[in-house]
Write a structure and sequence with these properties.
The complex is a heterodimer. Chain A is α+β, with helices and mostly antiparallel strands. Helices cover about 35% and strands about 25% of the residues of chain A. In chain A, helix 1 (about 15-25) packs antiparallel against helix 3 (about 70-80). By secondary structure, chain B is an alpha/beta fold. In chain B, strands 1-8-7-3-4-5-6-2 form an eight-stranded mixed beta sheet. An eight-stranded parallel beta barrel of chain B has the order 9-10-11-12-13-14-15-16, surrounded by five helices. Chain B is globular, with a radius of gyration of 29 Å. Chain B starts with a strand and ends with a helix. Classes of the chains: A alpha+beta, B alpha/beta. The interface of A and B includes residues 24 and 54 of A.
């Protein structure tokens, strides 16, 4: 099990496109993946879950992954946040 | 006569008779189920999801959607394949012992409710996506069939509450004039498909079904998003004329695609495109342009955290050069202004970025970034016909320094035995008045000029294009502009230097005759205007242009320049 903290950096926040990217990426892996904002926890492989976070720029999120390929999953997801989902 | 407003989601105009499709509200059956049926209900869910997903896949395969529209369809698939959907429905079934339709309905109502509560336009938009997906799924599970097909003719305008995609694909084969719906958004599947099929459509028209009756005459304007009920004869004539014109224009223009751009007397003009993104390549190819006259490279620098690598750039340039070979692709090195600065180029804020460190100034100040771009361009030149040009050059010194960098890059590639076009042509964008004034000197140190009229006008007339206070002063007809362009062309001619024009003037039918009259044979325009300009050029005889130019240069006010153009056109019966 691994857990990391990240911050939404792109101006528009987690709108439809970034959410789609996160969910698509997470679904490539077998591990479970959750995103936690404050005390809300959502399934990171669910588009509805990720969208309902409504995370705006500057929001701090905890990423949680558990499973056989958790490290690869985390690496790719973190990369998405770091590159601001190719936006801005 | 009554006019209803809605959202024009698929362009086009149609006149026809209303065919109403009765509303059968989606009544969700209130079934109760037994515990042992849950598994079977879930199997029904799986197969319904599978069917709708494969329907969407089918749509994606069958129609040529725009990238944005395809993205929407993919996102709808994601909603269907959401693991939470199945989990939630399963829980609802288990807890409430209701029928599957009811459970699915509850799941989506919950989701829609969530998104509706978020006060952010991005999420509110998603409501329409969830509604669309829910309707498709429920519609499929409850097996709606349509009996309306037999009533439709090719002058029918289908009037309904919401457009089911399945119906739209069926009616398109029969041919109908248009569709108008009470509910819908730009992202509804039906809107997307209507666009791909070219069926004019207006959606989101309130009180539509209450206002329209069967066989009522309608005009549907997919541009303005309007429906006119029982239009007057005058209105019908007006819209018929618009339809005629639209059809005639597009037919005429399409005929030109495979013909070379030539004046009436056969002078070949190179008509190229200005592009901003590699995605525009398909359009450029479709209209058969003579290459790319201005490839803006800013897109590479905007958005990423890191500066783009040489390799990333190389791949993009190479792809475009290969696709358009042997036609030229003129790549302009980056022209980022202070307004769209890249995070990694640490520049102090400028009060007036248009007069600040942009274009070649920025490149010269960031040699590492400049070299990466030049090397990428050089390497790509091996795979097609690439030329380079520098933006915002205002002195000879800048040009010489830029060339020095170019030489260093070439030497490096030679040393590493990386192939590139040794004869690659180097050009200067003439868009600063000082460059125009010394164009005689610049011409001796480069291979071509490209006149960027937008900036040339802005800098010559001291007008900030974005300032609303001075819009009147941005005047391309200004005699100073006419004289400057003439000067540039004359200086270039002394050294047999090719000159092209890539600003908005090149796609303005008021100025094209003047530019051609000056002897310019290369114009670069936006892809959307290319065929219109091609058609216009074919109506002009080059022998009548010299007088026009001489006449224009005699004028001392903008108004008179404009009048001279109109007078000339009238005299030779040239229509725009």
């Amino acid at each position: 099990m691994i857990e990391k903290t990240t911050v939404v950096q792109n101006t528009l926040g987690l709108h439809a496109r970034p959410c789609t990217l996160i969910v698509r990426t997470a679904n490539k892996f077998r591990s479970d993946f959750k995103i936690i904002k404050d005390d809300t926890e959502v399934n990171g492989k669910s588009i509805m879950g990720v969208m309902t976070l409504a995370a705006t720029q500057g929001t701090e999120l905890r990423l949680w992954a558990h499973g056989p390929d958790e490290e690869f999953l985390m690496q790719e997801i973190e990369q998405l946040f770091v590159t601001k989902f190719d936006e801005d | 006569m009554q006019k209803l407003k809605g959202l024009g989601v698929s362009h086009g105009i149609s006149i026809g008779k209303a065919v109403l499709k009765e509303i059968h509200p989606m009544t969700i059956p209130e079934r109760r189920i037994e515990k042992e049926c849950i598994l079977r209900e879930l199997e029904r869910l799986d197969s319904a999801i599978e069917k709708v997903v494969s329907d969407i896949d089918h749509l994606i395969d069958e129609y040529a959607f725009s990238d944005v529209d395809r993205e929407i369809l993919h996102s709808h698939k994601l909603i269907l394949q959401d693991p939470e959907l199945r989990k939630n429905v399963s829980r609802i079934l288990d807890e409430n012992m209701v029928g599957l339709e009811n459970a699915v309905h509850r799941h989506f109502s919950y989701a829609i409710d969530l998104f509706e509560k978020m006060d952010n336009a991005y999420y509110a938009e998603r409501v329409s996506d969830y509604r669309e997906v829910a309707n498709r799924l429920l519609g499929h599970m409850m097996g709606y069939e349509d009996d309306i097909l037999s009533k439709l003719h090719n002058d029918s305008i289908l009037v309904l509450e919401e457009i089911p995609v399945s119906l739209l694909t069926k009616v398109s084969k029969k041919g109908i004039a248009g569709v108008v719906a009470e509910i819908g958004s730009r992202t509804s599947h039906s809107s997307i498909v209507a666009r791909a099929l070219g069926i004019p459509a207006v959606v989101g028209v309130e009180n539509l079904l209450k206002s329209v009756s069967n066989d009522q005459e309608l005009i549907l304007d997919g541009y303005a998003g309007e429906v006119i009920l029982s239009p007057s004869q005058q209105n019908i004539t007006l819209y018929k004329h618009m339809i005629e014109q639209e059809r005639y224009r597009s037919e005429q223009l399409l005929k030109l695609v495979d013909l070379p751009a030539k004046t009436k007397d056969g002078v070949r003009i190179n008509l190229r495109c200005n592009i901003e993104l590699p995605d525009e390549l398909a359009h450029v190819k479709r209209i058969n342009a003579d290459g790319i006259g201005l490839f803006r490279t800013e897109f590479i620098y905007i958005g990423d955290m890191e500066l783009p690598s040489e390799n990333e750039q190389f791949e993009q340039y190479k792809m475009i050069a290969e696709a358009l070979k042997p036609n030229p692709v003129i790549i302009r090195t980056v022209d980022i202004g202070g307004d769209k600065l890249h995070a990694s180029i640490n520049l102090r804020h400028e009060e007036n970025p248009n007069l600040g460190c942009r274009g070649i100034r920025l490149s010269l100040r960031n040699p590492e970034m400049f070299h990466a771009q030049l090397k990428a361009i050089l390497r790509a030149s091996h795979y097609g016909n690439i030329k380079v040009m520098f933006p915002m050059v205002s002195s000879l010194d800048e040009l010489l320094r830029a060339k020095q960098h170019m030489n260093e890059c070439m030497n490096e590639l030679r040393k590493n035995e990386i192939p590139f076009d040794e004869e690659i042509k180097l050009g200067v964008m003439i868009e600063v008045p000082s460059a125009a004034m010394i164009s005689d000197t610049l011409a001796q140190h480069c291979d071509f000029f490209s006149i960027g009229t937008n900036d040339l006008i802005q800098y010559t007339l001291a007008v900030d294009r974005t300032s609303e206070n001075v819009t009147d002063y941005y005047n391309p007809y200004h005699p100073a502009i006419m004289h400057l362009i003439t000067l540039i062309v004359q200086n270039a001619r002394k050294y047999n230097l090719p000159v092209s024009v890539c600003g908005e003037m090149a796609s303005d039918r008021d100025f094209v005759p003047i530019l051609l009259g000056l002897g310019i044979t290369e114009l670069s325009v936006n892809p959307g205007s290319l065929l219109i300009i091609k058609e216009f050029i074919s109506k002009i005889d080059s022998s009548i242009l010299v007088d026009l130019v001489l006449d224009i240069l005699d004028q001392i006010t903008s108004k008179n320049v404009q009048k001279t153009i109109v007078r000339w056109r009238d005299k030779y019966g040239i229509k725009v």
